[in-house]
Amino acid sequence: MGQYGIGQPVRRKEDVRLLTGKGSYTDDVNFDGQVWAAFVRSPQAHAKILSIDTAAAKAAPGVVGVFTGTDLKADGVGTLITDVEFKDLAGNEMFRPKRDFMTIDRVRFVGEMVAVVLAETQAQAKAAAELVMVDYDALPAVGSTAFAASPDSPAIWEQHGSNVGVHWENRPEAEIEAHMAKAKTRVVVDIVNNRVVPNPMEPRCAVANWADGELTIYAPTQGGRRIQQGLAKTVMNLPADKVRVISADVGGGFGIRGKLYPELGVVSWATRKIGRPVKWRGDRSETFVSDYHGRDQINHAELGLDANGRVVALKVWTIVNCGAYFAENGPRLPINGGGRIIPGVYDIENFYFSVKPVLSNTVPTDTYRGAGRPEANFLMERLMDAAADATGLARDEIRRRNVIRQDQMPYRTQMGMLIDSGDFIGNMDMAMKAADWAGFEARRAESAKRGKLRGIGLSNFVEPSGGRPTEEMRIQVTPEGKAVVYAGTHSHGQGHETVWAQLIQTFLGIPFENVSLIQGDTKIMPKEAAGTFGSRSSWMGGVGLQRSAKRIVEKGTKIAANLMQAEPEKVSFDAGVFSAGTSSVTMAEVAKASYELKNLPDGVEPGLDESYFLKRDPEEFNYPNGTHVIEVEVDPDLGKIEMLNYIAVDDCGKVLNPFIVHGQVYGGVAQGIGQAMTEMTVYDDEGQLVTGSFMDYGMPRAHHLSMIDALFNEVACKTNDLGVKGAGEAGACGAPGAFVSAVCDALKDYGIRHIDMPLTPDRVWNTIQKAKAATAA
Amino acid sequence: MENFAYHTPASVADAAKFLEAHEDAKLMSGGMTLLPTLKQRLAAPTDLIDLAKVPDIKGVCRDGDELVIGAMTTHADVHENALVRELIPGLASLAGQIGDPAVRHRGTIGGSCANADPAADYPAGTVGLGATFVTNKRKIAADDFFVGLFETALEPSEIIVGVRFPIPVWSHYQKLRHPASGYAVVGVFVAQTKAGVRVAVTGAGPSAFRISAMEEALAKDFSAKAIENIKVDAGDLNNDIHASADYRAHVVTVLAKRAVAAKG
Ligand SMILES: Cc1cc2nc3c(=O)[nH]c(=O)nc-3n(C[C@H](O)[C@H](O)[C@H](O)COP(=O)(O)OP(=O)(O)OC[C@H]3O[C@@H](n4cnc5c(N)ncnc54)[C@H](O)[C@@H]3O)c2cc1C
C-alpha cells in the first residue's frame, strides 16, 4: 500500500502544527467581553462550613460576581454521582454519595471548591478569591488508604456510617479456600500500589459562552459527547443539542480528561447567570488538588501451588482509595474495569476476589492510563516472583508453567473475559533473547567489580481494551476527491490525524495528504461519538472507518457503473480506481460526479458521505499483551537505581503505524517507570497533600530512563476485522512489575524480596539498612 | 500575579538607590525563583528591579590568584566558561548540574546565592572554595554569608555584585539529586586550597556548612579511607518525605568519599 498505507512508519502529520505553536488549545480561545473565574478552594481536608462571607470579595476591584454552591442549587443545578453500582454477596448495594458541583455545608478534601469569583481580569479574580472568608469547623480527617478501610476511621459520610462503599466479592471465599488447602506451597504478598497524580502537560481550562439560548464550552476533553450530555441534563436543564462542547487540540488525556468535572458545571452555569463569557485557566497547583488522581490500592494476595509449580488457587483482597466522592468510574477500576483481568496471562481456575472501594479525605481517583490493569498485572507479577522464590523455580520457569497457552485460546477467564489470542510464551522468549537474559550473570559480575548491584526483571501482562462498546465514524469525500474524516474518536496525542489518513489511503486510495480530520466538536462530530480512552480507537474508530469506507465504495460503485455505462456487478474497486472491463474511473472522478445530479443513477442520493455506527458486544474486548524486561544497577551506598536497558515486547495485534505505536509504548513505559521510581503522592494524617507541586512530586524525566527497545510479537486479534489490539496503556502495565522485579533481583543477597513503589533512593537505602540489621540480629 | 512597575537600572548604584527608596521593591536576576513566587501570589512586590541591563556584573575574569564571577553570570555560562573549566573545574561541573538547560540559561550565581535555598548547589561551591561575596557595600566571606534557611548576611538593600573564588589546587563536587526537584538532597564540595582542605555540604542542613573533622583528617591523609568513619550528626539535618536525616547523614560521608576518590 505504498509509503502511507497500513503498517507503514509514517511520520505524524500533526506534529509540525503542534510543535510550531499553531495548535488550538482551549487557552487560545478568548471572547470579547469575557470575565475570568477563580475558584476558592478548601485548605481543610475535612470540615463543616459554618459560613461563607463574600462581601469583601464582591467589593474588590473588577469583581463581577461571587457565587457559592447555594446559588447553584437555587438555580436547580443537580449533583454528580458515580456511574458505578455494585452489590455485596448478600445483595446490599454500594453507597453512592452525591457530589454538589460546589459543596455547600461540608468540605471533604483539600482543594474542593467552595466559591467562584468572576472578575474582569484573572489577576483580579484571584486576588478577590483570597478575600472570600470561609468559616470552617474542622473535623477529623482520613488521609491514608489503610486508615480509610479500618473500622476506627471516622466516617466522612455519616449517613453511611463507614468509609467502605461496598464489600464486593466474586464468590464466597470458602469455595476457593477448599482448593487452596490442597496447595503444596502457599505464598502471600502485600502491596501498596501508590497513588499518582496524572499531570497532563496542559492544565485544565474552560471557556463557556451563553448566547442565543445555547451554551458553547471549550475545554480539554477526550471526546465531549458525554460531557455535553451531563452539562445539558444536570447543570443547564436543556436538551443536549443546546450545549456544544469543543475540544480542538488537547495536551494529554490519560483517562482523567474524559470526565465531567464540577468546574465545567460552574463556569457553564455562571455564563448564563451573568450573561457574559466566562474563562477559567487552572494552574498546576489546581491540577494537583482537583484533577482526579490514579491508582491507590492496597493489595493482599495469596497464591497456592502444587508440587509442579502449577497454581491451584488464588485469593486477592483489594482496597481502593476512591477519595472523597466516588467519581464516574472510580470504584469500577479494580472490579469490572481493569481489575478483573486478574489472574492476567495465567491459567488459574480457582480465584477468589474481594474489593473494598473506600472513601477518604483526598482527591477522588478515577481512570489513569491503564485504569486498574497496571494494578492487576503488577499484583500478579509480584505473586509470580514470590512463587519463584518459594518453589525454587526460576522466575521465567514459574511463569512458563502457568501462562495460558495458545492452544487454550479462545480462553475464558474466571471473571468471564474471553482472551481471543496472544502468544505469551513467545513474548517471553523474544524479550529474554533481546535482553540477553542468558548472559546476565556475567554482567552482574562485572557490575559487582565496580561496587554496583545489577539486577534483571521481567513482567508479563495482558490488558483488556476497547472501552465503551459503540462508536461512530463518518467519511465525506468532497467534490475535489479529498476525504474528510468526522471522528467520534478524539486524538489528544495519539496521532489519529496520521493513522486515519493511512486507513483512508488504504481503503479508498485517496492520497494521505488529501485526508483531513474533524473531531472534538459536538456540533459536527457524529451523533454517537464516544471518544478516545481505554485503548479503543484503533478498534472502534479503525473498524468504524473501514465500514464507512466500504459504504463509500458501495455507493461509488453504483455511480462509477453509471459513468462507465457498466453493470454495477461488473465494477471492481482497487487502490482508488473503479474498473469495469477496459474502462476505469478514479475515486476523484466518482466523487465529483456524486455531486452532479445528471451523473447519479436512479435512486442514488447525491454526495459521497457515509457513516458507520459500530456496536460490539459490551463484554467483548481485545487483549493487548506482552513481556517487558528491565535491567538495572543499584548503587547500594546511595540506594540509587540506574536503569540500563529496557526491552518491550508488545502484541498489540496488527500494527497500523509502528512509529506511532512505539510512541505509545515509550509514553506508557515512562508513566509506568514514573510510578515505580519517582511518583510519590503523600497525604499526611490531617489530609494535607504534601506533594502538591513538581518540587515535591517526582515526574519521571528522560534521565531516569534508559533507551527503550520496543519490539512487536504481532498476533492478529480475531474479534475485529482489522486485527488490531489496543496499544495506549501497555507500557504502564509492563513497566512497574519488571522494574521492581529487577531491583529485587539486584538486592537479593540482602534477602530483599519486595519494596513498595516508588523506589526512591531513600526508600531503597532504608530497606537495605533494615535487611542488614535483620541479618545481623 | 499582581501588577508591578518594572525597572532596568543602568548601574548597581541606581539599583541600590531604588531599593532604598521603595520598601516593597525586589531585585531580579534570572527570575527563576522570584517569578514563580509572584505567579503563586506568595509575594507581590510593587517594583521589580531587573539587573539585566547593568554592565560589568556579568562574566568571568581572572584577577591574580582569584577568579571573579559577576553576579549576573548564568549557570550555563559558568559551566561552559573556559577559564572556569581550566582553573576550577569542580565549579564548572557544579554549575552544569543545576536544574535543567532552561534554568541554567536564566538562573544566575548572584540570584542563587542571595536566595540561599538550603538545597541549592552554589552554597557548597562558594563555601567549599572559601569564596568572597562582593556587594555594593562590602565584602563578605562565604563562611559568614549563609546564615540559615533562605537567610544570608545581606542587608535589605544590599546587592551582590560578584563572587571572588581563590583558585584552588584541586576541587570536586558530588551531588545526589532530589527525585522531584533535581536540587541537591545532599551536595558535597571538596577543595584543596592554598589555605588547606575544605569540605562543604549543601542540601543536608538548613544552610551550607563545613565538616571540620573531615578537613582535618584529609589534611593529614587525602584519601577516602581517612574520612570513611566520619559522620555528621543526623540530629542537625533536614528530615523530609524524600530523605530521612539518617539517610542524609550517611550520604554526606558517601559523597565526600567519592569526591576525594575522584582525585585518583
Ligand atoms: C525548575 C528549576 C530547577 C532548579 N534546579 C536547581 C538546582 O538543581 N540547583 C540549584 O542550585 N538551583 C536550582 N534552581 C534555582 C536556579 O538555579 C536559580 O539559581 C535560582 O532560581 C535563583 O537565581 P535567579 O538568577 O533566577 O534569581 P531570581 O529569581 O531573579 O532572584 C532570587 C532572589 O535573589 C534576589 N537577588 C537576585 N539577584 C540578586 C543580587 N545580585 N543581589 C542580591 N539579591 C539578589 C532576588 O531579589 C530574589 O529574592 C532551579 C530553579 C528552577 C526553576
Can you put this structure into words, describing what you see?
The complex is a heterodimer of chains A (777) and B (264). With 777 residues, chain A is an alpha+beta fold. Chain A has a domain at 2-21 and 467-615: Aldehyde Oxidoreductase, domain 4 (2-Layer Sandwich), CATH 3.30.365. Chain A is built from 20 helices and 30 strands. In chain A, strands 3-7-1-14-11-12-13 form a 7-stranded mixed beta sheet, with helices on both faces. In chain A, helix 10 (333-337) links the parallel strand 16 and strand 17. In chain A, 58% of the residues are buried. The mean pLDDT of chain A is 97. Helices cover 34% and strands 25% of the residues of chain B. Among the domains of chain B are: 1-54, Uridine Diphospho-n-acetylenolpyruvylglucosamine Reductase, domain 2 (2-Layer Sandwich), CATH 3.30.43; 170-261, CO dehydrogenase flavoprotein, C-terminal domain (Enolase-like, domain 1), CATH 3.30.390.50. Chain B has a 5-stranded antiparallel beta sheet. By secondary structure, chain B is an alpha+beta fold. Chains A and B meet through helix 4 and helix 20 of A and helix 12 of B. Bound molecules: flavin-adenine dinucleotide. Flavin-adenine dinucleotide binds at residues 26-34, 51, 71, 75, 98-99, 103, 106-108, 110-112, 114-115, 120-122, 154, 159-160, 182-183 of chain B.
Short description:
The complex is a heterodimer of chains A (777) and B (264). With 777 residues, chain A is of the alpha+beta class.
Please render the helix and strand layout as text.
The complex is a heterodimer of chains A (777) and B (264).
Chain A: H1 14-19, E1 35-41, E2 47-53, H2 55-59, E3 63-68, H3 69-74, E4 79-80, E5 99-100, E6 106-107, E7 113-119, H4 122-129, E8 133-138, H5 145-149, E9 168-169, H6 173-180, E10 185-196, E11 205-211, E12 214-218, H7 225-236, E13 243-246, H8 262-274, E14 278-281, H9 284-290, E15 294-305, E16 311-321, H10 333-337, E17 351-358, H11 373-391, H12 395-402, E18 411-412, E19 418-419, H13 424-434, H14 440-449, E20 453-462, E21 470-477, E22 483-487, H15 496-508, E23 515-518, H16 537-564, E24 572-574, E25 577-580, E26 583-586, H17 587-594, E27 608-615, E28 625-635, E29 640-651, H18 658-678, E30 708-712, H19 730-746, H20 761-776
Parallel strand pairs in A: 1-14, 12-13, 16-17, 22-23, 29-30
Antiparallel strand pairs in A: 1-7, 2-6, 2-8, 3-7, 4-5, 9-17, 10-15, 11-12, 11-14, 15-16, 18-19, 20-28, 21-22, 21-27, 24-25, 25-26, 28-29
Chain B: E1 5-7, H1 12-21, E2 25-28, H2 34-39, E3 47-50, E4 60-63, E5 66-70, H3 75-80, H4 82-87, H5 89-96, H6 101-106, H7 109-115, H8 122-129, E6 132-135, E7 139-141, H9 142-145, E8 146-148, E9 151-152, E10 160-166, E11 170-177, E12 184-193, E13 196-202, E14 209-210, H10 212-220, H11 224-227, H12 245-261
Parallel strand pairs in B: 1-3, 2-3
Antiparallel strand pairs in B: 4-5, 5-10, 6-7, 6-10, 8-9, 11-12, 12-13, 13-14
The complex binds flavin-adenine dinucleotide (FAD).
